[in-house]
Amino acid sequence: MEAEIALTVDGTRRSLSVDTRTTVLDALREHLGATSPKKGCDHGQCGACTVLVDGRRVTTCLSLAVAHDGAEITTAEGMADGRELHPMQRSFLDHDGFQCGYCTPGQVCSAVGMLAEAEAGWPSAVTDDLTAPVELDEAEIRERMSGNLCRCGAYSNIVAAIRENVR
Asked: 2Fe-2S ferredoxin-type domain location, by residue (predicted)?
């Protein structure tokens, strides 16, 4: 069964016809030509497919496109402002927060979403005081980013890149 949906991807509204079983990841990559979200595990375990959907981080391999009809999707490609990199992208470069780069777009999107969650006061499994403002120390960052795997092991540099963006 096909469905007509519209997604705003990186600021551009796009209409497409998809099988109702199509994931957001497959809609982005196969129908719309977006290459930054990667198909890693295809089971929601690695985070390589992470993008921001209406400002919240989402593993797109587990999300059906029809469930996000009308959504605004930001990929790592769409974070830059023209030729000016997003501060998180710049930090990943400055701190060598990648090696092979396969996971990097998902890591960057997840980091941006995670900072917004922390700023909103959302606790994590390692948050000590649930009534105090969230303090993003290394343990908090590692826990909040635990859904994004890096096979190369660039975690210390990824954490450093994220810490540079903590307000």
From this structure: 3-79
